[in-house]
What we know:
This protein is mainly α. The chain has helices at 3-7, 61-74, 78-84, 87-93, 101-110, 112-123; strands spanning 42-43, 55-56. The protein has a two-stranded antiparallel sheet with strand order 1-2. The radius of gyration is 17 Å and the shape is globular.
Amino acid sequence: MGLRALLRPVRPADRPAGYNFHEHPVPVPRTLCSLNGPISPFKLPAHLYWGVDKAFDPLDRDDLAALVEAVLGEATTVRDLTRYLNGTLLAGIWSSLMLRPRVQEAWEKRFPELAALSRMEEVR
């Protein structure tokens, strides 16, 4: 086996050619009510947050923003969303989040009430 063969990227069988992790489909739940994540401090698994070992407190606004941004930015399944996010808390902080445009667009397309919150913030 030559060096070229060793350096060739390996593509997992379940991902099509040209798959870009940062462009994975954006998972969005059917309803915000299905987001029933914890409201007490907890740690995210490494596939959602690989920073320093940190417990997020969803009742602390800064922690909640970091938590939601991490989960929405890295989740690849609706199960991740329903397990770690709380719909009521998410709606309360939506307009202040820093999200990738395609993530924000996907969520606001499904939930017009979130889009309305973003528009209200733009007017201010």
